[in-house]
Every structure is written in C-alpha cells, then in structure tokens.
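Marked as duplicate of an earlier ticket. Keeping the data here for the record.
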Amino acid sequence: MIRTLAKSVREYKRSSILSPIFVSLEVVLECLMPLVIVWFIDAINSGAETGELPMRVILSYGGALLGMAVFSLIFGMLSGRFAAHASAGFAKNLRKDMYYAIQNYSFANIDKFSTSSLVTRQTTDITNVQMAYMMIIRVAIRCPLMLIFSLVMSFTVNVTISWVFLALVPVLAAVLMVVIFKVHPIFERVFHKYDNMNRSVREDIKGIRVVKSFVREDFEEKKFKATSEDVCKNFTLAERIMAVNAPVMQFCIWLSFLLIFLLAAIITGNAMAAGNKAGTVSEGDLTALIMYASQILSAVMQLSMVLVMIIIARTSAERIVEVLKEKSNIVSPENAVQEVKDGDILFENVSFKYSKDAEKFALADINLHIKSGQTIGILGGTGASKSTLVNLIPRLYDVTEGAVYVGGVNVKDYDLEALRNKVAMVLQKNVLFSGTIKDNLRWGKEDATDEEMIRVCKLACADDFIQAFPQKYDTYIEQGGTNVSGGQKQRLCIARALLKDPKVLILDDSTSAVDTKTDAIIRKSFRDQIPNVTKIIIAQRVSSVQDADQIIVMEGGKINAIGTHEELLAKNEIYREVYYSQNKINGENTAKIEEGGAENA
C-alpha cells in the first residue's frame, strides 16, 4: 500500500525530505535549551553566593538562548512550509492518478465501485491522506526525536529522577494501542456510510426536478437525515474512545511533576542529612527536569494525535489504493487491429452476465448476423437486455461466452480507440457537458470544421433549433444540458455521434423525446445520406423501427424473433401486441390483420 501511494509523491520528494531535516534541527535546539537554562541558573546561584555576577555571563547565556529560540522558530517555520507544500502536492498527484485510473476503467470496473464511492474516495479520502502525510513528515518525525533527545538529556541531568519518564511512557503507549485497536474498525465502517450519504446527496441533486414535481422533499430530507445521523453516530463512538487519550495524558503529566518533586525532595533531604551538598538536586536541575518532562509527555500526546490521524487515513489509503490498483478488464491486445473494415456484425453463441458470481445470464445463446449498411431495429420490454446486447459491440463489456465480430474481426482483437471511433453509440442517458454547442459536438471529432458540424446537425434535425438561438453554435450549454429540452439534447447527442464518421451507429432509445414526425425525418436522412453505415436502433415505439431491414424482438435476455415489420406482425405475438397497443387498432381491423397473418402463415 505504501509503495503504491509513494509513487504519487514524485516532484515533491525534495519538500518531503527537507521538512524532516528542518524539524530535526528544531528538536535539537529545543532539547538543548533546557540544558543552557540549567547552566544559566547555576551561574546565577554561583554569582549570588560569591556576590559577583558579571554582565557578560548574563549576556552570553541570554544571547545563546535568544539565538537558539530564533533559529528554532525559523527551522519550525521552514519545516511547516515544506510539509504543507509536499502534502498539498501529494494530494494533487493522488487525485490526478486516481482520475486517470478511473478514465481507463471499463463499465464493469465502474459498476464494481459505484459512482458515489469513487467521488468520496476522490474527495474525503484523499483529504484524510493529505492531512496524515503532512503530520507524518513533520509531527511524526518531531515527536519520536523529541522523546529520545529529551530522555537522553534528562539522564545527563539526573539519572535517578529520569527513570520516572521511562516508567510512564510504556503506560501511555499501552493506552494508545488499545485506542487504535478499538477505533480502526469503526473508521473502516464509517467510510462506507460516507458513500451512502454521498449517494443520497447525488440522487437528490440529480433528481431535484422529480423530487419537487412529486412534492417529496420531506421524504428526501428524512432519508438524508438517516444517512447523516448514521455517519454522526459512528464518528461520535470513535471520538468517545479517542477522548480517553487526553485525560490519561494529562494525568501522566501531572503525575510526573509530582514524582519529580517528590524524588528531588527525597534525594536532597538524604544528601543534606549525609552532609553531601553536591548530591542535592539544584534549582537548575529541577527546572530542566520539569521542562524535559513537559517535552517528553507532550511529544507522546502529539504522537497519539498523529496515530489517530493515521488510523483514519489508513482506511482512506486502503480505499484509494483499491482504485489505483484496479486494472481495467478491457484493454487493447498487443499488435491490435487498427482499422475497422466495415459495419458487418456477427454474434456467435454469445452469452453474458455482469458478474462472475451472477446465477443467471443477462444474455443467453445469441446468434445474430447484421450485414454492413443494414438498418436494424430492436424491440423488447424493460429488462429484455436490449442495451446489454449493443454494449458488447463497442466492447464496453466483454462477452462471458462466445464472440462478437465487427468487420470480420473479433472485437477483442481491435485497438479499443480504433474500434470505438468507428462504432458510435448514443446511450440511453444523454449527457451534454458544460460549454458551447461546438464544444459538445467536437467530442465526436476534435478538429471538426463548422461545415462538418452543420452537416451532421442537419442529419440529426438539430440545425433548425440551433439556428434559432441568438448565438447559434456558440450557445452555451449548462452542465447536464439543463437549458435545452430533452428532444434537443437527444438530437445534439446524435449529431455528436455522427461527427465520428462511424461504420456502425447505435441509437439506444435515443429518439424517445423526439416527436414522431422528426423521428421519421431523422430515419429518412439516415437512409438516404449514410446508406453504408450500419444502423442499430433500440426503441419503444414500433414506428421508429418498422421501416428497418430487420427487427429483433427480445425477451428475457434472448432473441424471441427476427424479421421485417410485416413478417413479425403476422407471426410474432409480442410484436403484434406492442403494435396494436400503440396504434389502437379497432377490433375489426385487428381481426383482418390476424386473418391475413394466418393465411400468410
């Protein structure tokens, strides 16, 4: 895990190294200052006994302390600056690396994590790791050094009293380990709750119009309240456990002071009774020991804070590494085919399921041949796996069994970019990005000219409404295309796909928001102007596919029937039922059609 995360440090290695160096220099000066104070106090006491205290002694010790304090401050500031620079840069690189990794994911990889979880990992989890990294390269270096140097220096002052520190440190460490052991599982759980809360917010924002139209604000508020309270409850439990740390630390600090004074009094009393003035604990020694006690125990307290942050960040780091280590299960092979010859499509004994553990196939026993240039319609009820079928053509998913061929070549043998550039797909969910109409169209072809864009927009019946805008093709589209209608959005998405100059064009229920007249005009322009492009149209309306060369009727993940409009109307019950329900044919005409169908049969 650490090795994977460390790759994102990159150009911030220098800052990551300089921060610990400067913090080490800061600690050395802070640990030497109590010793200088001891010498200063001893010099004052010696001067008081002799009645002489030269000004140069005061100035030399005072100047030394002032210089050490100034340099300690400078080193601390530099350490903080480099730590902030390194941690912010590390977080920036992590976000970039995660983003690029996600861009390479297949649909199956996205399904594995879920969109809400990926957003949480890109935001909250990276922020936690950033804070932990900053504390590791600064505070986590400072605390152990402060602990070790202060212990060593305290032993140089008084060996007997210094054993107090060695006795208390293991107690604090034991408390800390118990806290870590108890808190880590809670934080593992709480970040999954974060995903649920993020999912709730995302759904509400995305579906705000539906929420308001059905007056379901109260319901959504209650749902969000439940998820946020769930997060709050887990965090509160973790904070309660971690809160034990502070009082235990304070107790140990005051106990150490008490023991220092007690032992100093005993040692001094015994030395005075024995007439050994040199064996007493001087004021300077006592001052230094108290300062070292404060440094040692405050170092342990700060270390506990760092470890708590690391506990939180550890769970976040594991979630980030999962994303970074996840490899797309769909990649281009070596020596991949770079050119798609034509739009000929063949499904050979294809079966597919979304998960290896799934009990049932989403698609089963699909054998289908679509000739290049044909127009194919696909009809079927909800859940018939119509979208699943066409998703296999540009290799958005890989087949579980069998093979899919485009232009006579197995799709697994193509370079992914080459394949998807020639298989244009307008998905069910039409997505437009913030930017001008030109910006959105150029997703299909980056260097497209104005003439090319106008041509495809005319094909998709989008040019008329674009020309009606004051800024025409420079009209700004809001995020998600909220400032255009559903039908306009669909036509822009179709134009964007056409700009790729595809060999195969797949329209996945992409004219559902378009009126029947415009739908018919679009299909006619496709038939007349792009006859060599294989066109696959998934639709709910029979009128959208009835003039297709072949119509595929799907049911339960299988092909129920294939034929022309007339053939299916005569022979296929499912198709006939859909056609009658949409066209409201009266009983007499229905009987005639059925009679005619029976004779033809």
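See parent ticket for discussion. DSSP finds 21 helices and twelve strands in the chain.
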